[in-house]
Amino acid sequence: MTIILNKAAKVLQGVTSLGNRKGLTPLLFVLPTSSIMVILVFYPIAAGIIYSFTDMTQYNMGNQFLSPSWQLVGLSNYLNLFNPATPAGHRFWSVTGQTAVWVVGSVFFQFSIGLGLALLANKPLSGRAIYRAALLLPWAVPTYVTAFAWKWLYNSEYGLLNMVLTNLGLEPINWLSHPQWAMFSVILANIWLGIPFNFIVILGALQSVGHEYLEAAVMDGANRWQRFRYVIIPLIRPVLQTALLLGIIWTFNQFNVIYLITQGGPNYSTEILVTYAYFEAFTHWRIGLATAYTTVTFLILLAFSVWYVRSLRATERLT
Amino acid sequence: MPTRTSALERLLSHLGLTLATLFALLPITWVLSTSFKKKEHIFSTRLELIPPEPTLENYVNVFTMQNGIFWRWLFNSFLVAALTALLAVLLAAATAYALSRYRFRGRRVLMFSFLIAQMFPGAVIIVPLYQILLRLGLVGSFVGLVVAYMTFVLPFSVWMLKGFFDTIPEEPEQAAWLDGASAWQAFWYITLPQAAPGLAVTGFFSFVNAWNEFMFAMTLMSRNETYTLPVGLRTFIHQWDTDWQLMSAATFLVTIPVLFIFFRAQRHLVGGLTLGSGK
Fold this sequence. Notes:
The complex is a heterodimer of chains A (319) and B (279).
Chain A: H1 2-20, H2 24-51, H3 76-82, H4 87-121, H5 128-140, H6 143-153, H7 160-167, H8 179-207, H9 211-219, H10 224-253, H11 256-261, H12 273-284, H13 287-315
Helix pairs in contact in A: 2-13, 3-4, 4-8, 4-10, 5-8, 8-10, 10-13, 12-13
Chain B: H1 7-35, H2 39-42, H3 57-101, H4 107-117, H5 122-135, H6 142-166, H7 171-178, H8 183-194, H9 196-212, H10 215-220, H11 229-234, H12 244-274
């Protein structure tokens, strides 16, 4: 009986696919979410790009009571920004350079430490579940809590780090009030934050590597390094690439860690593109300049996102 | 592994993993220790990991300061996070279902835009979004904050739920169609109940994301009694000094529910982010 019903279902499935699965139905299903996304994400992105060609400030941006009176100024915000001779341009290039240091410094160590730990944990060890839980902890903690915790560790007088240094008879360090140390400090906190994701994703990939490949490599006389380099790495390469790209995108976007630990200081030395755009928008209210920053940010992220999507497609088609 | 691991190798692995574990636990342990210390032990240059005279007074102070404003922040955070999670799951489920089951024009573009939308930080859209909310009179209201949170929880929820729907067999729906059910009925009565665990996990993550969000909350909420926890806790930081004892107790308190949810649902998150490319 069930077999017959199943058969009937299979036959009718063709009919229903034609009748039910085309046309308006799916569009009605996706309509609410899609329209919200258009209004709340894609319109603001477009509006931001337009604002970057205007002289918008808090006075002419308009509100409930006042109609907007800003004007188009062409490329002037960008010309200002890209010209290192102007104050705005000088700031832009140093913030961009700091963003590069921040991303490269954070992601390099997050990734390599995560990879190293995953390799260490990828063997039968007692207490592996405990390591796993403890190493995941930094990912579970809210980033604003992470930022507060590190800010406390870095406290110049009563922070743990300087207390350890002075107890060892060493000079305390101005973790947050010296420009180079401040950059080092926010990067260290961000490395701490990013290790768990890399660790867990890479460990998952390592555990999925089939024994047969490794056994075949052993039979062919491959040593440990050769097995790692020529068998394991090519097999988990898509995962490594995805983890790396997500790490870059997330670090590039990381607002909380910097804003809450140093607020971009001292003297703008730890500002990155997203924090500085926020500062220009909501402290100086120079909307035109701020949106020029966000547009540059948008374009850089778009490039990385397209790369990320490609890397996903390489292994699993977006069906 | 085909090769045996030597005792030395295991020892070195334990050593490396233990060091990393200590590093991972250090900041949180230090905050936890601070939260049980008396003020005179916090602001002392003696290095003490175990509080010399452990006390609960910091926790009591967190709950009683400024006429119990912490309860208010807690309530605000909970309200905003719960509304965000509910709305996200409700709206995203139908979309994720259609993306999983139907092949229609524009489907790939839609999926691509949901994926891309997750990559853009709030900082890119916050200025125009702020203006939209200003014009609607929603700046400073919880509704406005929930609306702002939709920008990042919706795309995330759609992708996560699509993954869950992909794993649910289609046969029961087809049987329902045979019985004359509409597409909506098949979705609502047949598939949605089966996706309950997925809906719960997605809801939990949306809740946690909203609970942890700081930038939108700081920008949109300007009155003390409308603060959510991250914005409220920031008032402990003053220009030249910080109430580290209150900060430590409060951050530990707000982290507990997040840890609980995270460790229960973490497995699904990794799969969702890499789209199972590890398989």
